Each structure stands twice: as C-alpha cells, then as structure tokens.
Here is the input.
Amino acid sequence: MTNKNILITGGAGFIGSHVVRRFVNEYPDYQIFNLDLLTYAGNPENIKDIERKPNYHFIKGDIRDLAFIRNIFVENNITDVIHLAAESHVDRSITDPFVFIQTNVMGTANLIQAAREHWEEKWDGHLFYHVSTDEVYGALGATGLFTEETRYDPHSPYSASKASSDHIVRAYHDTYGLPVLISNCSNNYGPNQFPEKLIPLFINNIVHRKPLPVYGDGLYTRDWLYVIDHAIAIDLVFHKGKTGETYNIGGFNEWKNIDLIRLLCSIMDKKLGRPEGENAQLITYIKDRPGHDRRYAIDAGKINRELGWKPSVTFEHGLDKTIDWYLENAEWLSRVTSGEYRNYYEEMYGK
Ligand code: NAD
Ligand code: TYD
Here is the structure.
C-alpha cells in the first residue's frame, strides 16, 4: 500500500467523523490530517477514540482562508483530499445563506486551488474527492430516480451552494486535468448527527416529550442511508472510483416523513416503556419550509455495478442502532443541545 498524506476536511462533523475513523483504522500507512473549524456542528468528542493514533493529526482551521490552506498543503505534503467540510443544514441556509456560499463555494474553491498549486500539474498519485449531496438534483415527482445524468436543479441556498461547488470541482478536472471524483449521496442517519436534522431532532424531542414539528403535510419523501454505509462507499470510491466520474450513493430506502416519524414514535414507545401511541401524540404539523423539495430518491445502480457497493444495514436495524446510540449517549446530546442550540431552536420552532 502506498503512503499517502490525506487531508480530510470536516472530520469532526457527522459523516466526516465516521470517514476519518474508517481511514485511520483501516489504513495505518496513510497519514490522516483532519481539518475542521469546529463550528457548532463540529465536535472533537465525535472522534475521541482515535485522537491518539499515530497516523491521525487534527488541524483546527477554516477552509475559507486560502493562505492557511496553502500552508497546510506545503507543511504536510498533502497527496490527496477528501472534502466533507460544509455548512449542511437546509433550514440554516434559509436564515443565513451567505455563510453557505462562503464555506461551501469559496471553501471548496480554495481547497482545489491549493491542491492544484501544490501538485504543480503533476497529477499522478493525487486525488481530490468532493463529497456532495443528492439535493443538487432538485425535487422529484411521485416517480423516477436521480441518476448521475440528472440535470442539476437546486432550490435551497444549501443545495445551490453544493451544486456550485460540484461545478467548480468538475471545471478544475475539465480545464486543468486535475484528478477529481464526486459522489452525491442521499440523506444520512446514524450516531453523532447533530440534532437539527430530522431523525436526531425527533429522537431528542421524544425523549423530552417535546412537540415533533412536522413541516407542511408531512408527505415529503427522503431516501435514508446509514452513515457507516456512506463511509464504506466513500472508501470504495476513493480507492476504486474512475477519475473524473460521479457516483450516486443511496439507500434504496424511501420514506414519507410522516411514516418514518410514526415508526420512530412506535419504536421509542417500546424502548422508553411508554404506552403504544403515546409518542405519536407529540406530532405537531407546522408551517412548511420554503422551497421544500417534495421527493429525493437515488438510483445507486452505477456504484453497485461498477464498484460492487450496496447498503450493508437494513433501515430497521440501522434505525434501531441509531436510537440506542442516542439513548446511551444522553450526555453527548445534552452537551450539544445546551448553549447556542437553544437560541437556534427557539428561532426555528418557538419556545
Ligand atoms: P456536519 O454539519 O455534521 O459537519 C460539517 C463539518 O464541517 C463540521 O465538523 C464543521 O465544523 C466543519 N466545517 C464547517 N465549516 C467549516 C469551515 N469553514 N472550515 C473547516 N471546517 C468547517 O455535516 P455532515 O452532515 O457530516 O455532512 C458532511 C458533508 O456531506 C457535507 O459536505 C454535506 O454537504 C455532505 N452530505 C451530507 C448528507 C447528510 O445527510 N448529512 C448527505 C449527503 C451529503
Ligand atoms: P432534514 O433532516 O433537514 O434533511 P433535508 O432537508 O436535507 O432532506 O429534513 C428531512 C425531512 O424532514 C425534510 O423533508 C424536512 C423534514 N423536517 C420536518 O418535517 N421537521 C423538522 O423539524 C425537520 C428538521 C425536518
């Protein structure tokens, strides 16, 4: 196995922490540099178990700072990048779009420009892997799936900023020949997800018997993938993906929000020893999210055919493990829901 110095960005966040853990543990010959600003979504606790590993290095810093990024490439002779750092929550992008544009668009441009300069057009043995979302494709009607050929049609400032970053990465490939890979994944769930996203927010609210805020008619559909299966797919794409290509990653697992919420309520009735139906009484329909995409669903046929990937965990099993993780990590949850989170929650949902 070749030695590599891999810069993984956003490795203290939800998906990034699972990717960093996997690379540090599976590839002891690689030096892993985890660059993260530790925003509200970044939490060093997420990667506590690997912080003393000899091939792991943490760098606190901002991808919006080009001079700083250039320095990281030089000081650590970075050979490859797996880029996950981003502002990632749609609702926050509606309240404050500019930080999304700065981090997701400019941050990505800074990273790929620094890679281009450091690798000096000698592309052999280098790779810039950009981790993106299915939200760039926009919204589906009742039928059909997003393929790698689906036209980009983003609607929220979040998805528009991710779409822009995908275009920049492709432009560096097409213009300079820089070796890139992009994957677009569906909604992830699992341990360590910040409780602003649907599943951890609702688990936390159920525990505390708080209202479960369902946007609009609750009939919006998402395709859910267990986060560790995403990390496995990223590992595979990084090592076996064909340079210049895009791979869609998804769970073949569509759920209407309200059906998923009812399932969550019912599992948690049992786990918390509450009478069947008690948690569902917390369901509260509230005003819809502006520009809310009706349905996302991924055709993950290409990564399955070409790289042999498919989800390893069923939704029932993954959801069960996820709920258990949040119940067993009440301290993690209470730490991340104190302070700034309270202000965010009140602004979004009222007191
Ligand atoms: P997250 O919000 O949990 O984590 C983002 C991480 O990026 C945090 O650790 C944060 O501190 C860091 N970060 C933010 N701004 C930074 C900056 N300016 N400089 C350095 N670090 C910064 O996000 P996530 O859900 O883990 O998503 C990771 C990536 O995967 C994102 O690019 C996202 O678009 C993509 N993605 C997410 C999902 C999903 O369901 N969560 C699905 C598909 C793709
Ligand atoms: P979310 O987890 O924010 O992911 P995304 O918007 O990126 O798909 O939301 C998943 C779905 O759940 C989406 O249709 C919006 C809906 N939702 C609610 O109904 N209530 C909530 O409080 C949240 C956070 C999301």
Observations:
- The pocket of nicotinamide-adenine-dinucleotide (ligand 1) is lined by residues 9-10, 12-16, 36-39, 41-42, 62-64, 84-88, 103, 107, 131, 133, 162, 185, 187-188, 194 (CB under 6 Å).
- The first strand starts at residue 4 and ends at 9.
- The chain has a mean pLDDT of 97.
